[in-house]
Design brief:
Radius of gyration: 23 Å
Distance between the termini: 30 Å
Strand content: 15-25%
Largest sheet: 6 strands, mixed
Shape: globular
Number of domains: 3
Order of helices and strands: HHEEEEHEEHEEHHHEEHEHHHEHHEEEEE
Helix content: 25-40%
Structural class: alpha+beta
Number of helices: 13
Mean pLDDT: 93
């Protein structure tokens, strides 16, 4: 049996990542302490019923939420951990974070961008502790329009640390229906916490209603809707792979996604309004739109010859209703054909591509500064505006950082995929020769890739084929696996 944790560590090193902070950065961490909250002279919002929703194993909490019902809509507050308070620009901690630019989640080991004393303690929005935050305040109408927003610093306190599974279960059913006994202890505690607080229940209903309104308005404008899944290895106490858990996005996940998207758009608009540069998240107009058109045609739907997000979203919604069991495969194919996201520096007066999948002209990552360096950059830009300082980055430097963050994100994705394929190969060793249904997920000059559904595993088709393309449904036979190298090879049947 391969040691997956050691494979993950080696993959990180091979891709040029630091697997632990350098000693000088760790020395800086030792000097960091709690901020002097009482003497800062900033707005104190710690009495509000802030809550967080995340995975049950998450310890690096970046954001908390609060909602208040007003005439004609809901006022939303998203508090984002003030990581810049602890990670000063130019410090050794900053250099270390800038080197990796992202936390890497392999499913068996997490390699945090920042030392854990920060990311899971001092700069994590853990329950029952005061923290500094950048607050994005937004008014969302009942129709889902974002009509007003502001950004400022404040003292906050997470009053209820909740989990996706428990919140989704409570939202989807009566509070009298218990969680399945197979749920984790953290999920069970969260469910009990919600049932015990009428005020918390009202908060979740308000946030869910506002999130749904934001989502509907966004999709009406052309933002694309997908069905996403994530595969995560399940290990025994001895570290052996015993299963592959498939996580599907639930109602609580959508709630947080909607609030974070709104916050990121509001942040980009805030910097634009102040005539400040920003680091944008970009998804360009898809180069393989012609293939998306062909996929739609094969399902009896006609898309225009030129890329159009609204038309694509209508097609996706139609297929979600007509073929719900196949919508996951269609989502995967379209996501692959859209191409990857990237970071781009935006300077006042310049033209920067938008985010095609979100139908957003201005979008900046800002809500996960413990986990992503671009969000920390955005936080510094915001704080410069709030203090009346000049922009902390020149345009050339911001452009270089955008390219670096994009490259490191791609490398992190490759590490995560490699480790998960090693885990999958371990479980599939006894199934060589079996035939599976699959969908083509990639066709390049380096080969053709297919993903099977049970389990959710991607591998390579060993022989080159010119007659298949992304989105094609195929049947494949498992030819071989190599758990040490992360190889899963199939042959077309």
């Amino acid at each position: 049996m391969p040691d997956l944790r050691e494979l993950a560590r080696r993959a990180m090193i091979e891709r040029g990542f630091l697997v632990e902070p350098p000693r000088d950065a760790q020395a800086e961490v030792a000097s960091r302490t709690e901020p002097p909250f009482e003497t800062l002279g900033i707005l104190d919002l710690s009495s509000l019923l802030w809550s967080s929703i995340d995975n049950d194993e998450s310890r690096d909490l970046d954001q908390i939420e609060y909602a208040k019902k007003e005439t004609g809509g809901t006022r939303l507050y998203v508090g984002v951990a003030d990581v810049d308070w602890f990670v000063h620009r130019g410090s050794m901690l900053d250099h270390s974070a800038q080197h990796n630019t992202t936390s890497v989640y392999t499913g068996v080991t997490t390699f945090p961008m920042l030392p854990e004393k920060l990311s899971t303690d001092l700069s994590s929005l853990n329950e029952h502790g005061k923290r500094l935050a950048i607050v994005v305040e937004m008014f969302v109408t009942d129709e889902g329009r974002l009509t007003d927003s502001s950004v400022y610093t404040a003292v906050v306190q997470n009053r209820a640390q909740l989990t996706y599974k428990a919140v989704a279960a409570w939202l989807d059913s009566s509070s009298s229906v218990p969680l399945p006994t197979t749920s984790s202890e953290v999920d069970q505690r969260t469910f009990s916490k919600i049932k015990a607080s009428q005020e918390l229940q009202e908060q979740l209903r308000l946030q869910d209603t506002a999130a749904q309104a934001l989502r509907d308005a966004r999709h009406e404008a052309g933002a694309l809707s997908f069905q996403t899944t994530e595969m995560r290895p399940v290990l025994s106490n001895e570290g052996t792979v015993v299963d592959l858990e498939v996580r599907r996005q639930n109602r609580a996940g959508l709630l947080i996604e909607d609030l974070m998207i709104a916050s990121n758009q509001a942040t980009a608009r805030f910097l634009d309004k102040k005539n400040f540069p920003s680091l944008r998240r970009v998804v360009r107009t898809p180069e393989r739109w012609d293939r998306i058109v062909m996929l739609a045609a094969s399902l009896g739907y006609s898309l225009p010859a030129q890329a159009d997000a609204k038309s694509l979203e209508r097609f996706l919604q139609s297929e979600r209703r007509a073929n719900p069991s196949k919508f996951g495969d269609l989502s995967l194919a379209v996501v692959k054909l859209l191409g990857r996201g990237e970071y781009a520096a935006h300077w006042p007066g310049s033209t920067t591509p938008g985010h095609f999948a979100l139908a957003a002209n201005a979008y900046s990552h800002s809500t996960a500064p413990n986990r992503r360096f671009p969000d920390l950059i955005t936080q510094r830009l915001i704080k410069a505006v709030l203090t009346g300082s000049r922009a902390p980055y020149e345009m050339d430097e911001l452009s270089t950082l955008a390219e670096h963050c994009t490259e490191r994100e791609d490398a992190a994705n490759k590490v995560e995929r490699f480790v998960k394929k090693c885990a999958a190969a371990t479980l599939l060793r006894a199934r060589i020769g079996e035939v599976f249904d699959g969908i083509i997920t990639g066709v390049t000059n380096r080969g053709t890739w297919v993903r099977i559904s049970h389990p959710h595993v991607e591998g390579k088709i060993v022989e080159h084929h010119n007659n298949v393309d992304v989105g094609d449904q195929v049947r494949v036979r498992l030819s071989s696996v190599d758990a040490e190298r992360g190889f899963i090879d199939f042959a077309l049947v």
